[in-house]
Write a structure and sequence with these properties.
Layout: E1 2-5, E2 8-11, H1 13-56, H2 68-72, E3 80-81, H3 82-96, E4 103-105, H4 115-121, E5 128-130, H5 131-145, E6 152-153, H6 155-158, H7 161-170
Antiparallel strand pairs: 1-2, 3-6, 4-5
Helix pairs in contact: 3-5, 5-7
Length: about 170
């Protein structure tokens, strides 16, 4: 048997030994690559599990923006109830209604409500929200943010994604 590697020519027993060494080297490289792939899969799987778990767990909650609770809490009890939220929403509605026609269109609500939310709230499909429609959205958003169903929102609840969505409707 004659094996040529590079500039060397091997024959007989040496050729078999060289082939065995090359085969061992190839196996070693393959094992290293497989270990890297397995490690990458484990790391990726762990990241996916950790990410999915953190999305559904309420233990990580950002605090409400500074001053948000104080601005909305008119009776100074440390929470915001539905009446306080609706009062703040009514005040904001009047402020945003620059043309004083009693309705808000998408342009006037820019930054306070996303398009999908606007479409769902526009019950009469006239392209605007009157104050009653706007306050209905606020009430729905308030109830979504009130996870413990106490009828009030504290700073922790205002810091959740649903609480921040309500704050966009109130400030």
């Amino acid at each position: 048997m004659l094996v040529q590697t590079g500039v060397y020519c091997w024959s007989g027993r040496h050729a078999l030994r060289a082939q065995a060494d090359l085969l061992q080297f190839a196996v070693l490289i393959l094992e290293v690559k497989m270990k890297r792939v397995a490690l990458a899969r484990r790391v990726f799987g762990f990241a996916v599990i950790l990410g999915a778990a953190s999305l559904g767990l309420p233990h990580y909650v950002a605090a409400a923006p500074p001053g948000a609770l104080k601005a909305l809490d008119t009776d100074n009890d440390g929470t915001v109830d539905l009446a306080e939220a609706k009062a703040a929403a009514s005040k904001l509605f009047d402020k945003l209604d620059r043309d004083h026609d009693g309705t808000l269109d998408r342009r006037e609500l820019r930054g306070h409500m996303v398009s999908k939310e606007f479409g769902a709230a526009d019950g009469d499909h006239d392209g605007t929200l009157d104050k009653d429609e706007y306050l209905a959205v606020v009430e729905k958003s308030f109830k979504a943010a009130d996870r413990d169903n106490e009828g009030t929102l504290d700073a922790k609840e205002l810091g959740t994604a649903r609480g921040r969505a309500l704050l966009r409707l109130l400030r």
